[in-house]
Every structure is written in structure tokens, then in C-alpha cells.
Amino acid sequence: DLSTSPPSAEHFFQFVTSAYVTLFAVTACGLDSVDQRPSDFPHQASAQMDWLRDLAHRLVDLVWMPPSQEDINMAAAAAAAEQSDGEKRNIFPFCYCREEKPGERLVRCCSNLCPRIWFHESCVQTRTLSDQDQDQDRFCGPDCGSDGTYAYCQCKERRGGQMVQCGLMERCRKHEWYHRACLTDAQQSNNQHTTWFCSSSCSMGGGGEEDFLLNYTKTVLWEGLNHLARRDAIQEGDGDAMTDFWRTDMVLLWSREHLQLFNSSHQLITGIEGFYPERVRQDMKWNRVLNLQGTSGGNVSLDLLTELMINEFK
Fold first, then answer.
1. 10 Å Cβ neighbour count for 27?
2. Mean of the per-residue pLDDT values for the chain?
3. Cα dist. 211→22, 65, 177 in Å?
4. Using the 8-state DSSP alphabet, how is residue 67 labeled?
5. Share of the chain above pLDDT 70, in %
6. How far is CA 84 from the centre of its chain?
7. φ, ψ for residue 118 (rounded to 5)?
8. For residues 287 and 274, what is the distance between their CA atoms, to the nearest angstrom?
């Protein structure tokens, strides 16, 4: 029973992650077995590291599911509003009117910093966009129109010139529209002959319907890679990395209502950032692991050992 045996659950998760990574490598390199050597694998050691790094980037690109830009902008706007007047204000996710209008078409502001991004077409026509061509980029107001940022392309800049659309169109996992000048020579060549996809993730989703099994697999692999990164930080006793992981995990702990762990992580981070005396801060950051066997890379988490001891003496 994995639920009652943390080490077994951890080993199983590592096994599943390694299996998925191996499957991706075999598929991406067009191999028939795990023992086959890729035809383009270089001979020089430095070139081999570059080759592996590129393959790893392709894997992360495939499984990465970025948060919604709308959510990021809305959170930033809420934080700015709270800082400016000291009071919490309701930040609606879209439009000037801050109202629901079922069935009405939404128009997108093309600024990457716009706090709302989407606007009702009727509201747009009565505000700043009534004289703009529907085929041109639209901006909700002077601030967004002059900030120089762009909602599309990886550059996020208004460079002008010809744009290329990802073959997944509005379902694109990344930026949907790209400046042709921002694409590599290989990407531009592919775009001229076949339907072009901006990433491996979009290419695999180009079959039409949403592939929920693929999305689940990608989520499992993403969590598995995060687990391996955390494990490496523990094995190396990397206090800075472990502290960063605690910061990122606070969002997950709050959303899943693990309030006791959330409070503990908040206390840890605030203490390390300056609430505790310097000696205590140093101890909390760099003495969070134990090495029971005294071997290189043999560190284990102090929290895990404490949990195992609690279960042992219950």
C-alpha cells in the first residue's frame, strides 16, 4: 500500500518518471530500442552535453503547462491596487463594465500587461476602440497602447512585420501568433510547406479533440520532474534551492487547503528572510538534511526522517 509507505511511493514515482522520460527520448530520437544509439549523437563530450541539453529542453517544452496570462495579469493588478490604497478592491477578470454578458463576443487587448485582456465588443465600441479596424491590433486604452508590449510571440514586443499563426490556432499552448523574423531558419522553412506548430505540445494536440490522457500524462511527468529536482536539492544539501521550492509550494498548499503546512512554510520563509537571528537563519537554511550513511549524495530530508520517526513511534 503506497499510501502507508512513503519510501515505496517515492521510489514508484521515480520509476514512473524515468519510464516516461525514456519513452520520450526513444520516440523523439526515432529509436527502436533503449539500447540503440541516436544517429545524430555527437562524439565530442562537450557536444554530447549540448545534445542532451537540447533534448531536455524539448521534454520540458512538451510537458510545461504555463498558467493563464489572464490570471497572472489579474493577480499583478490586484497586488498593485492593494499597495496603492491600502485596501483590497475587487479585480474583475475582464472588461470595463465588470459584468457578465452571456453570449456577447469578447475582444482581446493586445498589450501583454493589460490587467483584464478581454473586453465585451459593445463596451469596446463605446470606449476607445470604435475607430479601429477589426483586423488591426486592438488596445483598451492609451496606457496599454503605449506600453510597447505585445500579447503574442515569444519576444512580447511590437516589432511589426509579417506574422505566422500556430497550426493549433486559438488552442495554441503558447503564443499563437509569431513574428516571422523571430522564427529560426528551420521553423520558417517548415512553415512554408506544411501546417506549422510552434512547439511539440501543439504538434501533438493538432489532431482536433483535446487529448485528456495526454494532458494527464504530461501532468504526471511534470510533477515527476519537479520531484527529481527537489530530490537533487536535498541530496546536495542545497539550502537556496530548497527554500525556493518551499516558496513555490505555498501556492499549492493554500489551494489544497493544507493550512498547517502552509503556516509552517510561511513561518520558515519569513524566518529565513530576516525574522529570525542570523545564526538561526543559517541553521534553518543549511541544516535541513541528514546523511545517515555518510556517503556522497546520500542526504535525506530532515522533514522526511521526522515523519518516519513519528509513524514508527505511534
1. 9
2. 80
3. 21, 14, 22
4. P
5. 80
6. 29
7. -105, 140
8. 17
Asked if 86 contacts 112 with a C-beta cutoff of 8 angstroms, the reply is no
Measured CA angle at 102 (ends 112, 109), to 5 deg: 15
Q: Which residues in 81-151 belong to E strands, given as ranges? A: 106-108, 118-120
pLDDT of the residue at 88: 47
Q: Which residues contact 106 (CB under 8 A, 6 or more apart)?
A: 94, 95, 118, 119, 120, 121
- The residue behind cell 489544497 is 256
Q: What does the DSSP 8-state code read for residue 275?
A: I
Cα 235 from Cα 127, distance rounded (Å): 58
Q: What 3-state class would DSSP assign to 3? A: helix
Cα–Cα distance, 191 to 203 (Å, whole number): 13
Give the pLDDT mean for 107-112: 83
CA distance 172 to 157: 19
Cα R_g (the chain), whole angstroms? 24
- The pLDDT of residue 244: 92
Q: How far apart are CA 205 and CA 166, in angstroms?
A: 12
| Residue among 95, 93, 99, 46 at smallest CA distance from 72 | 93
> What is the residue whose three cell numbers read 540503440?
36
